[in-house]
Every structure is written in structure tokens, then in C-alpha cells.
Amino acid sequence: LRDSLLNNSNKREALKKQYKYDYDKKLITDSIKSIEQKKITSTQLALQNAEIKNQKTIRIALIIGILVALIFLAFVFNRLRITSKQKKIIQRQEEITLQQKNELELKNKNILESIEAAREIQYIIFPSENELKAIFKDHFMLFKPFDNLSGDFLWVKEVGDKIIVVLGDCTGHGIPASLLTLFANEFLNNIILEKKVTSAAKILEEVNSEIYNYLQRKQKTKKTLNEGMDLAICIVDKKQKQLVYAGSKIDLYTVSNNNELKMAESYTLELGKDTSLKDVKDQTFTLADTKGFYMTSDGLKDQLKYKTNKNKFGFKGFEEYINSNFDLAFEEQKNNIEDLYSQITRSEKQVDDILVFGFKI
């Protein structure tokens, strides 16, 4: 019995120990599980926090991206609006420019047509080639306007048994000077054809008086340019077989039968600057003693001594041309002076109207 009781007691002790062991083991296991569970929960929380933080970062980045995109779109829209406005302005300016261009082209066309018509009117003053051939035994003329219109002119008429040759150079060139040539034409028609004045010096004095009176009337209103006129007048008396010359700032060149070049000097003042001319006298030449007569406006002389030309031609360029050509037929002289003109204007621009007239009676 005792052994049985002892055995049962031992069994109970063993069971207690077994229960205690199992309990402790379970407790330890539960503790481990709890710790692991806590670790898992902590890790999950950390992961969740990280995910939340990541999602927050993404949302912030997305918001910033949307804001940047909106700002960019606003900028692009504004630029497109400005560009559209600028394009409209440019189109309008182009339309205005095109309109102005068309208007200028039309005005320019009208001006050119008017200048061409004025040139045709001005050329009425000049004698035709047929008229010159009928009057002179031989002749040539070089006429090169600086513009379409010229301030230089040639007036030739037969009055009875006299031939009157007038070469003029009005101040300036272009339209203003060309208008003065029309005045000069009327002055000469009135003085020579109507008043029948046939003295070279007297014609010069009458023209000076007309120009002076014109300038005085003009100065009472408004003076726009320094107007005046240079003139050379030759009266050929076919009966007396002589030529009478008087001029203002345009000289007459003659070549005698013994090949001597002479120059009849002109009055030194421009016409229209004073009420009357002083000491203007007729200068007479015998036709039989002369091979030819030459007159030129200052345009050719100025071109011959202009810049680089002056080293080759200088102040005596025209005289040298006459000396080199007077023995030739006037047709050849014309060709040579045309070549001379081409040569002196090849490297230097033309500076003034050019008119040269050579003739033989």
C-alpha cells in the first residue's frame, strides 16, 4: 500500500512536473510567439508607415508635377496668345507696308511718266538733227543730262541772213534747272524773234535783265535755290562772213587755218546777279579764217578734272581734245568725244549735265 501510495505520489509529482514543464514550455512558446508577433506587428507598422510616407511623397510629387504642368501650360498659352497677337500685328504691318509699297510704286510710276513727258517738252527747245544739218556745213553735239531732265540747252534759229546759236547752262540740274531752260527759251524767243535783237552783247544784256527781274519777283515770295544762268551767244552773219560772240561764263573756242587754238573769254559773272552787265563787248571772227567753233557747258570741264580724271586731263582737258581732233570730220570728232565721255565716266560718276556743241559754217 505504501509502495502503491508512494508510486501514486511519485506519479502525481511526475505529472505536476510534467504539467509545470508543459506550462513553462507553453509559456515560453507563447512569449516567443508574442515577441515574434510584436516584431511582425512592428515590422508591418513600419512597412505601413513607410508605405504611407511613400504614398504621401508620391502625392506631393504628383501635386507639384500637376502645378508645374499647369504653370507650363499657362506660360505656353500666354506665349501663344502673345505670338498670335504679334502675328496679327506683323500681318497688319505687312499689309500696310504692301499698301505703301503699291502707293510708292504708283507715285514713282506717275513721277517717271511726268519726268519723261517733261523731258519730251524740254527737248522741243533743242534743234533737231535735220535742222542742224540744214543750217551748218558740219557739226556735232554731245548731250548727256545728269538726270533725265537737264539744265543745259541749245537754242538755234535762222533769222534772215543770220544764224543765232545760244548754248546755256542753268544753275543745278534735274527738274528745277530744266524749268529754268523753259524760261530761257521764252526769253530768247521774245528778245530775238519778237524784238529782233541780233547783237550778241545786246541779247546777253536783255537775257540778264529778264533773269534778274524773274529772280527779284521770286525772292519776294520764297527763294528755294541759288538760281542763275551761264550763256554763250554766237551770231553768224552769212553776208558779212563773220561770227560775233558774247558770253557769260561760257567761252568760245576757235581753231584758225594755221591750226592755232584761240579762246574768246566770256563775262565772268553769272547772269541774273546784277541789274546790268558792264563792259560786255562783241568779239568778231572771220569765217574764212576759222576751221571750227566749239562751246561747252562746265559739265564736261568739271568731269575732266574730277578726282582721278584730273591726273590725266586736268583743267586743259577740253582744249587738248580740240587740238587732237579739229582736223577730223565732225562726225569723227563726235565719235571721239563720245569715247572721251565713256572714258571719264567709267571710273567716276557723272557730276553735272554735259553739253558740247561744235560747228562749222
Oligomer: single chain
Helical residue percent band = 55-70%
**Outline type:** rod-shaped
- End-to-end CA span: 193 Å
- How are the strands of the biggest sheet laid out side by side? 1-10-9-6-7
Low-pLDDT stretches:
none
Largest sheet, in brief, is: 5 strands, antiparallel
Q: What portion of the residues fall into strands of 2 or more residues?
A: 15-25%
SSE topology string = HHEEEHHEEEEEEHHHE
Average of pLDDT? 87
Indicate the radius of gyration in whole angstroms: 55 Å
The overall strand count is: 10
Would you tell me the structural class of the helices and strands? alpha+beta
**Total helix count?**
7
Structure description:
The strands form two sheets. Strands 1-10-9-6-7 form a five-stranded antiparallel sheet. The protein has a five-stranded antiparallel sheet with strand order 2-3-4-5-8, covered by helices on one side. The chain has seven helices and ten strands. The model has no long low-confidence stretch (mean pLDDT 87). Strand 6 and strand 7 (261-264) form a beta hairpin. The chain has 361 residues and is of the alpha+beta class. Helix content is 55%, strand content 19%.
Describe the structure concisely.
With 361 residues, the chain is of the alpha+beta class.
What attributes characterize this protein structure?
361 residues; alpha+beta; 10 strands; 55% helix; 19% strand
